[in-house]
Amino acid sequence: SRSYSITLLPGDGIGPEVISVAKDVLSLAGSLEGIDFRFQEMPVGGAALDAIGVPLPEETLEAAKKSDAVLMGAIGGYKWDANEKHLKPETGLLMLRAGLGVFANLRPATVLPQLVDSSTLKKEVAEGVDIMVVRELTGGIYFGKPRGFGSNEKGEDVGFNTEIYSTSEVDRIARVAFEVARKRRGKLCSVDKANVLEASMLWRKRVTMLASQFLDVEVSHMYVDNAAMQLIRNPKQFDTIVTNNIFGDILSDEASMLTGSIGMLPSASISESGPGLFEPIHGSAPDIAGQDKANPLATILSAAMLLQYGLGEPEAAKRIEAAVMNTLDRGFRTGDIFSAGTTLVGCKRMGEEVLRSV
Amino acid sequence: SRSYSITLLPGDGIGPEVISVAKDVLSLAGSLEGIDFRFQEMPVGGAALDAIGVPLPEETLEAAKKSDAVLMGAIGGYKWDANEKHLKPETGLLMLRAGLGVFANLRPATVLPQLVDSSTLKKEVAEGVDIMVVRELTGGIYFGKPRGFGSNEKGEDVGFNTEIYSTSEVDRIARVAFEVARKRRGKLCSVDKANVLEASMLWRKRVTMLASQFLDVEVSHMYVDNAAMQLIRNPKQFDTIVTNNIFGDILSDEASMLTGSIGMLPSASISESGPGLFEPIHGSAPDIAGQDKANPLATILSAAMLLQYGLGEPEAAKRIEAAVMNTLDRGFRTGDIFSAGTTLVGCKRMGEEVLRSV
Ligand SMILES: CC(C)[C@H](C(=O)O)[C@@H](O)C(=O)O
Ligand SMILES: CC(C)[C@H](C(=O)O)[C@@H](O)C(=O)O
């Protein structure tokens, strides 16, 4: 039987609850496919700040690096919001991404037929939306140098950051996106601001060059402001979107909200050859933490992405996805996706129902 | 009688058509309020590239600076898309903004009761949406230095830009936003990415400091990715939004598309003391240029903003706004906002109907 080591990073807020449920689902789906997991739980984010004083302890990064894949819950919370930058939970997440070299962040935004009414979009606009945003995750303005505070000629304080991309950074994320598009509906839209930014001009040039290696993929280019509009006007025009770190942060969240059910959406962050990082796109929801109200499906679906993209175990991944669909078909809903005529359940019970369907 | 000089910048595509109509409406509304205009038309964008070889001729900027307000149509088109940066129509627009020092860009996104069905959002989500995005327009990553192309340690090509804000830049845009919010529903949401970017940390700090001078305004702070979601989830939570140049570019376009009728939306860009720049938010729509199909209402409403914010002539502004509402109430629609049961008209006829209602 195949055996993998998984680092679990429960993190903050509802993180521990959803990770606990997702771990059970992952174990069962694995065992039914002859896969065996060794799990190791490590602290990250606010939990690590409270326990150890830093948002990403060295041991956590080391354990993550040595494992075959990393499954994370969520990080952050009001409690640490006023912390200085190096003591913010978010900084731990950025260090983890950089440390693992997970440059490609895959964020599906799919409107499930069972949940089309959750969307604030009209039914005919929302139904059938199935977008994959491929976001560059370890470069751009998030990590560019120089950055910091200083003063200008007038002696005033300034804050500054650098948006920067190199050819190899663009090439590797574009390659991932072309491959993803090829396995989907064969359409890739690269989003940039090449009418204003030099970093985007380089981006567009490289994507255009790479396109000649993927002739089966239909490529288009769109300015980010237009993309923000088109996602609302007609989201079905999009298949795969590739974009930089900050535009991807904004557009993937916008795309996810089109579905109206962000408690359902997983993500995968993959590296050149090391372990990937898999996490729900929702936050730590401190207001409902510990109340057994969280929707664990995004984390469960992140476990499916872990199997698919992280371990190359598509059968086990499909098993989990099918179990989630089946559970929705049987009418079970957490509070965030509840509607009249369905059965309201908590986090644990939702996990049990998924387990029953695996 | 009061007399003002107005620089008209028709620009490209549908620009000349909509400017011609808006000019007539402005003249009539003015004369009914005892205002007299001197108009001067100057080339900008692609039109200027074709005629003179640069996207913003010196004479155009000089004329604009000497006038009391500037009314622009639209710029850009496929024809010049492949031009080098300094020969792009967009570069002319950026030079015009910088040249006029119009640091505050006011972009209303209002769902009109007559057009609520145009929105792709559900009626109950869209109706009553009335957001003003105040975008910083002459700073940040659009203008920050250093910028350009170079090579990194590995000898690879890189493209880079600098996101930078100084205290006085943040203070002046925040002040405008507080004043705007005060005259609206008293709520200001400042959008940034202060959990990652130093430029945003400075932004948030200054907005927080200024808040103590505007105690009647309720201030909140939101990360840009969350704002992109919240605009779709529940747009009615927003009154006034203030944000930097690039986030404002993205979010104002997103907000405008919530209305489903971007052919209706005006904008105002104002400076410390010089003339303001007023323009529709839509583009030059080269595909329908010269066919009398364009919706002139966004430009007509931009003329109303010109009266209101540029010249301090609120009565004439209200006259135009009322005329537009009346024309919609009488059922006239251009193709972009047409629906069953209304009367389809072209650009000129729409202008005539507004004139009739002024
Ligand atoms: C928490 C924050 C640093 C992070 C980001 O901006 O990348 C989050 O918004 C995300 O998208 O995963
Ligand atoms: C044309 C372009 C340079 C411009 C911008 O990005 O500011 C446009 O998108 C706008 O919002 O007015």
TrEMBL record, chains A, B:
SUPFAM superfamilies: Isocitrate/Isopropylmalate dehydrogenase-like
Reactions catalysed, as given in the entry: (2R,3S)-3-isopropylmalate + NAD(+) = 4-methyl-2-oxopentanoate + CO2 + NADH
InterPro entries named among the record's database cross-references: IsoCit/isopropylmalate_DH_CS (IPR019818), IsoPropMal-DH-like_dom (IPR024084), Isopropylmalate_DH (IPR004429)
Keywords assigned by UniProt, alphabetized: Amino-acid biosynthesis, Branched-chain amino acid biosynthesis, Leucine biosynthesis, Magnesium, Manganese, Metal-binding, NAD, Oxidoreductase
Assembly behavior: Homodimer.
Family: Belongs to the isocitrate and isopropylmalate dehydrogenases family.
Protein name (Swiss-Prot/TrEMBL): 3-isopropylmalate dehydrogenase
Organism in which the protein naturally occurs: Canna indica
